[in-house]
Design brief:
Elements (H helix, E strand, L loop, with lengths): L2 E4 L5 E2 L7 E7 L5 E2 L17 E5 L3 E10 L16 E8 L5 E6 L13 E12 L2 E10 L2 H9 L4
Parallel strand pairs: 1-10, 8-10
Antiparallel strand pairs: 2-3, 3-4, 3-5, 6-7, 6-9, 7-8, 9-10
């Protein structure tokens, strides 16, 4: 039996009510959000806060920028063998207005995306090693683009 584990512990929840969510922090002094979660100092240059609460970040956002990963990333990234290029997107989260980078689901290329497209957070397998399936968050187009993406990936 395969055990599902986060590739990086503490960066997201898999079974949150309403779906998976990234785990970030909010400064208790000024309200600035951070991802990954901050624990030492506030990233707002006008704040000297050092106390944070852990928060679930927005599950949806809009594409701010995107690109192809045409070359195999170096370790510690674990890539498929043979390497399969994938799409990356910088997504501005709906409520926090924080930009978070992540892979786009398989089957979606840069030809399928445009700045401003709405995407949602999903959890997917990064790689499998022995009996463990290592998970990461990915961005999936919402609405009509999601159907086209699933068809391109052979999921429909």
């Amino acid at each position: 039996m395969t055990t599902r584990v986060p590739a990086v512990e503490g960066w997201f929840t898999e079974d949150a009510e309403g779906g998976p969510a990234l785990l970030g922090s909010r400064c208790t002094s000024c309200g600035t959000y951070a991802f990954p979660a901050e624990s030492r100092y506030c990233r707002n240059p006008d704040c000297d806060g050092s106390e944070f609460e852990t928060v679930e970040l927005s599950r949806r956002g809009r594409i701010w920028s995107y690109t192809d990963a045409r070359y195999q990333p170096p370790p510690p990234y674990v890539a498929a063998d043979p390497y399969v290029p994938f799409c990356l997107a910088a997504v501005e989260l709906a409520a926090e207005k924080l930009v978070v980078m992540g892979q786009v689901v398989p089957g979606v290329s840069v030809d399928d995306l445009k700045v401003g497209d709405e995407v949602e957070l999903v959890v997917d397998t990064l790689y499998t090693e022995g009996e463990q399936e290592f998970l990461v968050w990915k961005w999936q187009p919402v609405g009509a683009n999601a159907s086209a993406s699933a068809a391109a990936a052979g999921e429909v």
